[in-house]
Amino acid sequence: MQVVWSEAKTRIHQNMPHHSFMLWVEPLEYLTRRDDEIVLGCPTSFFKNWVTRHYLSLIERELETVCGKPCPVTLKLSDNHNGNGHYAPEYEQPVLPHITDRQHILSAFHKDFTFDQFVVGTGNDFAYNASLSLACAENVCHNQLFLLSNIGLGKSHLSQAVGNHILLKNPTIRVCYITAEEFTNAMVHALRHDKIEEFKEKYRRHCDVLLLEDVEFLSGKAKIQDELACTLDALLEAKKKLIFTSTYLPGDIPKMDEKLASRFSAGIISSIESPDLDTRVRILKKKASSKQIDISEDVIQYLSSELTQNVRQLESGLIGVSAKASLLNLPIDTKLAEGVVNNIVQRSREITIECIQKLVCKYYRLTMAEFLSRSRKRSIAQPRQIAMYLARRHTGQSLQAIGRSFNRYHATTLYAIGVVEKLIRENGPVQKQVDLLSRKLESGNT
User: Fold this and answer.
1) 394-403: b or e for each residue (b if 16 or more CB lie within 10 Å)?
2) Residue 381 class from Cβ within 10 Å (0-12 exposed, 13-18 middle, 19+ buried)?
3) Which of 213, 220, 225 is nearest to 182 (CA)?
4) What range does the domain containing 35 cover?
């Protein structure tokens, strides 16, 4: 069942933001199985309640998909829960000095996101060397790095590798790893509770290394941008180390203050490209070794040649063949791998922007003319935004290409995606509609 849970986690990862997955799903541990029920361990009571409210239905749905039958999930506190609201996993990031509200300032590092677990190839060697240089050197000529890549290519891995390496060398160094969304939420929380000065103090005076993920989330948030710009000025003046990650260049993020965009661009900007064949082979071998999956060279070569989009797709293929072999008691060979790969690749090939548009029009009972019009009526605008979100999620098309398909600029597309992501986080009707439409797209029932 551990293999089944690993495959389910891979599928869950594909259906939620990366930072949310790392914060709320990755820490869950498989404990046991009771009849058809799966028991997962949680670190704290707060964690258990949050996952139950926001992610339990998604977890159960993906487990049912993997197992082929309903698979109820029970969440319980892990044995190493000490009853005081703290959790001591195998690798725990040290609590920063002077920081009492860790929940509002830090995300947990992934223990496997280290430099020695990162596979270096022609598409990421510069980003790797720049990250390692910043992490290792006491006095570097550059103390700021902007990592740019599409989803699933390793920018979060490198960002966290910097933090893991620095803390391994010196646990007293104050490393703040946080997403732009969490930074925003923390500032809003501080404003509502009259703690803004305390918030400023945390980041400007009690932070030696700032790792800020997904900075495109700041688009259109003027007050947050102003505060972050002041924070970065204070950190740069104190010669602190800064790493930013994004799927867009600073200048391409709409509604981003020019001064803040220039601060993001002040250091080294390094892009990470899709891995070539040789790199994909080495990635699969390393992941198979770390997961203790016995897989032949032929199957490794086959998966590497067919799954070319990103590292997550490679991992999905590896977990898929392992789970299928385990469930059906079959050897992991090329024939078995073909079935897994066809399922993965067929979905990505069949889902086009055009079929997404037709499905959304049918679901919301709109004509294509209404759908692509300039109308801002909520009954038309929201379905259009959902379609843009689905296009970004299920196709490999760029923002520019998606925008052109909807007769919109790429900035409008990015804004629409942000609106839908926010509505999904609210766990309301839009989340259910998006989940339903995604299932229809993945099943080919359009």
Assistant:
1) bbebebeebb
2) middle
3) 213
4) 2-77
Question: In the listed set 333, 350, 367, which residue is the last one of a domain according to the structure?
Answer: 350
Widest CA span in the chain? 62
Select the more confidently predicted residue: 284 or 350: 284
Per residue in 242-290, pLDDT tens? 999 998 888 888 788 888 999 998 888 999 988 889 989 999 998 888 8
Please indicate, yes or no, whether residues 58 and 118 belong to a single structural domain of this protein. Answer: no
Bridging pattern class, strands 241-246 and 144-148: parallel
Asked if residue 322 is part of any domain, the answer here is yes
Would you state the torsion angle of the CA atoms of residues 316, 121, 151, 18, taken in this order, to the nearest 10 degrees? 70
CA distances from 122 to 129, 159, 163, 274, 386 (A): 12, 19, 24, 9, 36
What is the per-residue pLDDT across 169-187, written as a single tens digit (0 to 9) for each? Answer: 888 889 999 888 888 888 9
Strands 37-42 and 29-34: antiparallel
Residue where one domain finishes, among candidates 238, 271, 304: 271
Percent of the chain surpassing pLDDT 90? 20
For residues 330-347, give the mean pLDDT.
82
The stretches of 242-377 forming alpha helices (DSSP H) are 258-264, 277-290, 297-306, 311-328, 334-350, 353-364, 368-371
Decide if 153 contacts 274 (C-beta within 8 A): yes
Whether residue 101 has pLDDT greater than 70: no
What span, in angstroms and rounded, lies between the C-alpha atoms of 408 and 411?
Answer: 8
pTM: 0.59
Cβ(373)–Cβ(384) under 8 Å?
no
| Angstrom distance (rounded) from CA 147 to CA 398 | 18
259 and 220 together in one domain: yes
- pLDDT value of position 55: 86
